[in-house]
Fold BCS1 N terminal-domain-containing protein.
Amino acid sequence: MAFNSFLRGALPPRGANISHDGNSSAGNGLPDGILDTLSPLLEFNPLMKLFMLFYNMAGSHLGIDPTYILTLVAVVWAANKLWGQLYTSLYDLARQYFMARIEVSDTDDIYLHMKKWLSSQPAMVNSRSLTAETASKGAWDEDESDLLPSRVSPDGSGVYLNFSSQEAKAPPRFIPALGLHSFWFKGRYFRLQRKLDALVDMNPRANGMPQVKDKETLVISCFGRSPEPIKQLLQHAKEQYYLDHQAKTIVRRPAGQGMRRYGHRHSWQQVADRPVRPMRTVVLDDEQKVRVLSDMNEYLHPATPRWYANRGIPLRRGYLFHGPPGTGKTSLSFALAGVFGLDIYVISLLDPSLTEEDLLGLFTSLPRRCVVLLEDIDTAGLKRSEDESSTTPSQDDKGSEEQGGKEAGSKDRGSKKPRDKNNNELDRRFFDLARELKRGSDSSEKKGISLSGLLNAIDGVASHEGRVLIMTTNKPETLDEALIRPGRVDLQVAFTNATQEQARELFVRMYEPDSSITDKLPVDLEDHVSLLPLTPFSEAPPTPFSLSSDKDGNMTDVSGPTEVDEDAVPSTTAASGIKKPAPLNLGPSTTNAASLTTSSVLDKSKDDQHTETLRPSELAHLAAQFASKIPSGQFSPAELQGFLLKRKRSPQRALMEVDFWVKGMLAQKAGGSKVLAVQ
Ligand SMILES: Nc1ncnc2c1ncn2[C@@H]1O[C@H](COP(=O)(O)OP(=O)(O)OP(=O)(O)O)[C@@H](O)[C@H]1O
């Protein structure tokens, strides 16, 4: 049916209900002929159809002149528009004169703090305009163990853990969507604007084309002329962010090549945040531990920078941890970072994408205090190039001390052995040419880090000061002497295969109940820090010492002007009025075991239903027996840990099987086989 005929049918007869002037003869409020004119339009526009229906219904049934409705709608619309404009102008005015604001760019860490804080605010999460993000749990985050029932019998049958739905169960994280939001914090009204701008990055990419990059900004504003409330809010968000990081060590590695170009925060990416490794879980000679701890404590003391600056010494401290694989070099690095609450920045010099320029950029974008871990520097293939080796170490070192650093490749300009014969000049030129040609042909494949590149990053003029550098190696003898000279490596720590005492400690640590480890954690950390000299250097200047060790791992001073004996650290502590650390609690010694009550050894963990429980005295006894069966210096702590881990529920079984294991392992080592005959 044609719409206008339907409409006419639906309309009241002429003149019915409505009294108005004679011009509106259609009785539906429209002038004559208007419907006929509009009908082609009306046929096709559903909105218009609806409007006309409503228009006529209002006229015929409600007895209201539809033109009044139209006028009203127009007035409301105009008022709304006017109010909108007025509001915007007033708001702009208020913002300009009565509001403070702070912008946060997504390139800054504060952006992460704010995002996390916003996602934890119920008022924001219940907002109507949100962005959902997938929030996966980290390896160390607690799981709801009730959701993972497991019953496995000794014959291997039963129900195994199943994590197939773990991602499905993880709730998404909600943050305010792009746009304008408002919220209250500490009784104050805040406005939040999330905005996205497209920026053209003029740094050409590999294909030579500039790329467009999204850049997000958070604009936080509040009423008042002072930005103080916003600063407090940002501080609060930051504190909340780091609240659960206190017992964690954050591990960072160089970001991907693309991100590294942006420098600073983008140079590094967080790869893990793991629970702090308690120092007592690293089984190492107490004296060695205290030496490193006190040395680092002195270095990190707030008074140190001034002390160093007054004497013109670059503010850097380097450690070399050397010893066979699996003896605890990395573990000690992590434990140290945990004690001092520092983040760890791990660099692998074997990373093929890492250039010397990148390395320099990475070192310059380190935070004020941190631990930089350069692992396995021997395997990094760092060698002096021919021209580097032609520079004598003494000249090299002297030069770098005087300059406080050096430019990359400065060694290339080192002095050569004098040649007095003119005909040798020809040889030299020929040699130079050959070397240049060789360098040219090698350059395509040799993209790694050269020794001079590494030295330049570590202590070049542009290099960051304040960091703690830890280098680890299995083969200290292969290292270039320039890399480990005092000033670059200030303290060497030797790690050895496990002694019987270390074997005993490892045994106790493996079988002591969880509660005694976790309950003691804060005390443990406090113990360490309180043992260390805290006197500012103005009162008791630090005694720089550098230690090397003999083949048995005994440490001797190799650099300090004063001889460092066993009492070097305790005497400093004595000067500061802090007790000599006689009763050290640096390892899971029998003291820990002996301090356990019988009830506390009962492991109540649901998962440990089959764990043998021991009295502290029993544990100490078994540990001593176990240690007596381990030949000193034959096995790394990692190997012993591996053996114990496979029998982690049964110390008795470990004790029973250890003889067989030791025999098998010794035979395997003698045969040089890498395949385990016993496990
Ligand atoms: N001294 C130790 N005390 C406690 N645990 C140790 C010790 N040495 C090794 N381990 C254990 O052995 C494993 C390997 O240790 P770690 O990575 O620290 O050794 P590493 O010396 O750095 O080895 P690599 O030279 O191969 O890098 C870790 O699980 C660690 O817990």
Remarks:
- The radius of gyration is 37 Å.
